[in-house]
């Protein structure tokens, strides 16, 4: 189910922020060192309930990149850069997946694979086995997440994979992109901010 954002609605007090310490992200497959400041990151992608468009814990989707910027700001944050997103997901040990280097299993993330045939995003927080060591949930699967980083061309980088993605797309270094005007049922927003 796609939930469309239509105006300033986010309930900032409903967002649970998790601290991710500063460090140097060895970004991407090329392992380019990039500094990352201390961050507070939303525990999950923003939900319909947090955005005032229902009482459901489904991630808000059907939003353009501009909508995502606005929602992140209303929540008291901003979109992460692609480097920041990767640091949150991979950490200093460069985890293959947000939970670690163990292979994907259906209890860790909503992805396309054996035992799952998802057709839409599911409520956030259903996969605690897929959390980062700090407790950030749903970085892999369920919905892609908009970032502030520009891709080649006019698009923006999206990270994390979705319910329709194979496990490879949930690797912490995997990059994808979407046009800024795209309103997909598989792309959401997770704000970050500096403490």
TrEMBL record:
Coiled coil: none annotated. This is Formylglycine-generating enzyme family protein. Pfam families: FGE-sulfatase. Residues 55-151 form the Sulfatase-modifying factor enzyme-like domain. It comes from Micromonospora parva. SUPFAM superfamilies: C-type lectin-like.
């Amino acid at each position: 189910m796609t939930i469309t954002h239509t105006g300033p609605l986010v309930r900032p007090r409903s967002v649970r922020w998790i601290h991710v310490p500063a460090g140097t992200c060895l970004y991407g497959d090329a392992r380019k060192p990039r500094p990352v400041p201390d961050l507070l990151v939303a525990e999950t992608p923003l939900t319909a309930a947090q955005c005032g468009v229902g009482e459901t814990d489904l991630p808000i989707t059907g939003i353009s990149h501009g909508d995502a910027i606005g929602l992140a700001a209303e929540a008291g944050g901003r979109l992460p850069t692609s480097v920041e997103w990767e640091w949150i997901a991979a950490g200093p040990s460069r985890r293959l997946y947000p939970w670690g280097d163990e292979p994907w299993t259906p209890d860790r993330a909503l992805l396309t694979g054996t035992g799952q045939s998802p057709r839409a995003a599911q409520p956030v927080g259903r996969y605690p086995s897929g959390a980062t060591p700090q407790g950030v949930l749903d970085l892999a699967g369920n919905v892609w997440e908009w970032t502030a980083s520009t891709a080649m061309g006019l698009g923006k980088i999206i990270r994390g994979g979705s319910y329709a993605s194979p496990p490879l797309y949930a690797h912490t270094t995997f990059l994808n992109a979407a046009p800024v005007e795209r309103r997909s049922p598989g792309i959401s927003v997770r704000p970050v901010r500096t403490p």
